[in-house]
Structure formats: C-alpha cells, structure tokens
Amino acid sequence: MSSTNREVILGIGGGIAAYKSADLLRRMQDAGYRITVVPTPASLNFVGAATWEALSGRPVTTQVWERVDEVRHVNLGKIADFFLIAPCTADLIARLAAGRADDLLTNLVLASDAPKMLVPAMHPSMWSDPATVANVATLRSRGFTVMDPEVGRLTGNDVGPGRFPETQSILDTFNELTGYVQDLAGKKVLVSAGGTREAIDPVRYIGNRSSGKQGIAVAKAAYRRGARVHLIAANVDIDDLPGIEIEHVEDAAQMSRALQASFVDCDILVMTAAVADARPSSTADEKIKKDQYTHIDLTANPDLLKLLSTEKKNQIMVGFAAETRELVASAKTKMSAKGLDLIYVNDVSDGAIFGQEETEGTIVLVDGQEIAIARTSKDTLADLLLDYALKQLG
What we know:
Blueprint: E1 7-12, H1 21-30, E2 34-39, H2 49-56, H3 72-79, E3 82-88, H4 90-98, H5 104-111, E4 116-120, H6 124-128, H7 130-141, E5 145-146, E6 150-153, E7 159-163, H8 167-178, E8 188-194, E9 198-199, E10 205-206, H9 213-224, E11 228-234, E12 245-249, H10 252-263, E13 268-271, E14 278-280, E15 298-300, H11 304-309, E16 316-323, H12 327-338, E17 342-347, E18 358-365, E19 370-377, H13 378-393
Parallel strand pairs: 1-2, 1-3, 3-4, 4-5, 8-11, 8-13, 11-12, 13-16, 16-17
Antiparallel strand pairs: 6-7, 9-10, 14-15, 17-18, 18-19
Helix pairs in contact: 1-2, 1-8, 3-5, 4-7, 9-13
C-alpha cells in the first residue's frame, strides 16, 4: 500500500463501545494512517467531539449544516481513501443499508466510492434479529467489509455475539482491506537526512539546500512497515517522530561517526543526506570581518558511503544523486564507486526538488535496470525505494 493512500474517515456510531475507538484511533495513527473522525450525533452522548479533535488533531463535525462553506459532506468523501466505522450500531447499519443520508457520516458514505469497513457492536438479540441479518447481507453484497462481532460479556450481565472486537483484531482486518503490510518487521533501517554544514566561523558555513524531507519520508515509511528506524538528521528542523530514533548532527565528521556506529547492525541504509564534499581547512573562533573575508582554504571531506562500503556485509545500501546533466550515467558511476545496491537520481537544475513535497527522477538498480519515476510525492518514492531494497535483501 502506498503511503499516500492513508486518509481514513473513522466513523463513530452511537454505542457504548465508542470509547474503545479512542485506542483504535491511536493505534491507527501509529501505523501511519491519517484520521478524520466523523461521529454520529448520538455517539456524542458517549464520547464528545473535543476528545476526537484532541486525539486526531483535526476538526470534528457531525452534521451537514456545520462548516457549510467547506461542503464537508462532499469534500471529506473526496479525500478519503478508506472508511472505518467502529462501532457500527444496529441503527446505523439499518440506515446505511437503506441509503439514508440524515447526518454527516451517512452523507459521506453515499458520496464516496472508497472501500468501507464496518465493526458492529450491539446486544446479541439485535445482532441476530432478522432485520439486522438482512441489512448486513445487503451491505456485504454492495462491497462493504463487515466484521462479525466477538462473543463475550456486554453491558450488564448479558453474554453473546455482539461485543466490540479487540483493537488488534480490527487493525488486522483493516490492514488486509488497505493492503498495508509490515514487511520490514525485525529489520533495522538506517536513514540519513538533510544537509551538513561545515563551519567557516561562528556565523558562516558551507552548506547545501537539502531540506531533509525525503529522508524523513523514508524513515516514516520504514517505521510504518515495521522496521526499527534510526534517523541521522543533519540540520533538519524536526524534534520528534514517534517510534523513530533521531540523532542530530551538524557536519560531515559528526555524520560519519553516527553512521559508522549504527551501520554495523543495520539491514538497509538509505543515504538521502547531502554531505558537503569539502570543509574549511580551519575554522575561525571569531567572526571573520568583511574586509578580511577574501578566500577560504578547503580540505576534502571523506566519502562516507565509500567508507561504509568497506565495512559492508549483508547490508543493502541505497544512495541518492542530485545532478544537473547526464543524470543516469552519473548515477551509475556513483553506484559503482561507492558500492551501492541501488540509487535514485534526480535533476536539481535551478534548485528543483529541494524543499518540495514532490520529486521525479530515476531509480537505477545494481544490475543496470532503470525505473523512471514520474512526478510523485516523496512519501510514495520512499515506499518504492524500500520495496526495491527489500527485494535485494531477499
């Protein structure tokens, strides 16, 4: 599943199990899904809108007549890749089967062609009632994924089929629907991001225009796919990525030490960072005055990828090449010189790609195969690179 296809409408029906969906929301966010919560008006008797807004970080509306200027009953449906309605009550199932559109959630269901999954939760007598059985069959015939509720104790002393399933069980079923897999579980992915800065004096430095966005996208994608992720960030404005170990560095020397310490036990290295080719031969302790700022003596920085390749065992090494001409030829030369398993090359003429949300270029594999990447999001490229790295890892 592409990381771009993760916009989910989480519908909340008016049942006591609504409180359990708070944990479900959090677990879905941990897996990388982006959640917009749409509760039915009745569900707000159990969990209020403020709770859903706090957990999702997004505004919550329940009626078509709220935020009318945004036309939410249509626009939310357009951005949704999937619907997950949990809990789904007998009343809500009946309204969906009848094609009703009497609140925002049911409007969205009608207005969107996105795949939809329902998680029923109700009293056993309601679940087994012929009307509910017929409504569930109708919805399944229309393509809805409808989980069977679990058997267990419900509100009060009643026991039977109708209990809200465990969060992991819901996630497993939903992940099957979305095609989401954790194929990097048990692997360690080492990612470098950003651009190094080589100090001239306390104020000035030699640097580059790398924003670190591609490296962050790779780190997030690897984590979503189950990997243990170590992100080495060079001058990247980011403090926290839940579940991901972040190590901040500034210059090439710090980057080198961090990479060598972590490379030994990684399975995949994705080197998106732009490391300065050279550094000032000496760094002034005080700011150099303008009239003294005439020239800078440079010393070549070590080739970090080439150094790591001498320590390589079974690791897969992914490199990046930012070029302005002869892109693929330059990438193949770099791949050979640095012992890479695959490389992504893009055209950065006139500063293209740097700091942007999208990219385009070519993936070159070690066997010479070239895969053209039309303009796409950096999130999508991240998953593609991990796909090819995983294939080579075997």
